[in-house]
Amino acid sequence: MRSTYLLVSHGSRDPRPQLALENLGQLLSQNLGDSFPAVATATLELGPAPLHEQICSFGERTLSLGLTELQILPVFLLPGVHVAEDIPAEVEIAQKTFGDKLKIELRPHLGSQKAGLTKLVKSQMQEVTFLPNLLWPKWILLSHGSRRPGGNSTVEEIASQLGAQTAYWSVKPSLEEQIDSLVRGGQHQIGIVPYFLFNGGITDAIAKNVAQLKQQFPAAELHLANPLGASVELADLIGDLIQK
Prior knowledge:
By secondary structure, this protein is of the alpha/beta class. It is about 45% helix and about 15% strand. It is built from eight helices and eight strands. The chain has helices at about 15-30, 50-65, 80-100, 115-125, 155-160, 175-185, 200-215, 230-240; strands spanning about 5-10, 40-45, 70-75, 105, 140-145, 165-170, 190-195, 220-225. It has a four-stranded parallel sheet with strand order 2-1-3-4, with helices on both faces. Strand 1 (about 5-10), helix 1 (about 15-30) and strand 2 (about 40-45) form a beta-alpha-beta unit. Helix 1 (about 15-30) packs across helix 8 (about 230-240), helix 2 packs across helix 3 (about 80-100) and helix 4 (about 115-125) crosses helix 5 (about 155-160). About 35% of the residues are buried. The mean pLDDT is about 95. InterPro entries: CbiX-like (IPR002762), Sirohydro_Cobaltochel/CbiX (IPR050963). It is an enzyme of class 4 (lyase). This is Sirohydrochlorin cobaltochelatase. GO terms for molecular function: sirohydrochlorin cobaltochelatase activity.
């Protein structure tokens, strides 16, 4: 073991994403064959302290283990402002605190693992069963969405690989707009796969929205898949980001 690893997520008031992140950290620790103290979690927002302070705290633990390298693993699906600006700024503050005593290495974000994530999304789709119908079901990949230029390119690429359309929770086109377009085109079996890491407040809101859309489009058979979730496969993708 040469390094410790800090999984950084966005953070939420809902406890479920944090529990899932901690489970993911345990799975990563098992994959690495390291003791769990070498893997920890932190949040950019809504955490016990600013991210740079969380990094410094884990940095002190890293040094106490006799190690001089800490790798930051951003558990984010989209390359938005958090990945491009906020996390690097927090890492820079922490690095200045330690100077040459500790090397803090910021790794690529999870969303850069497009091939692996495409496989995971496909697995989520395969768990959904449609009623027998002559029409092949159409899928919508629903992401949070980013207003940052190019921020949704990964979602578009994954959707293209899966033969799916894209919809976004915070930007256009919305889920309602895409379902309306499909129904007007004669499509009546529609699957919706949330491109989100874990269950939480947003996935609850999505489920409620889908229930409303079922009433709005009674001729359509709408099926909602699960988000990615903490799994061995997802931990493997994060492990691939590590500088070995």
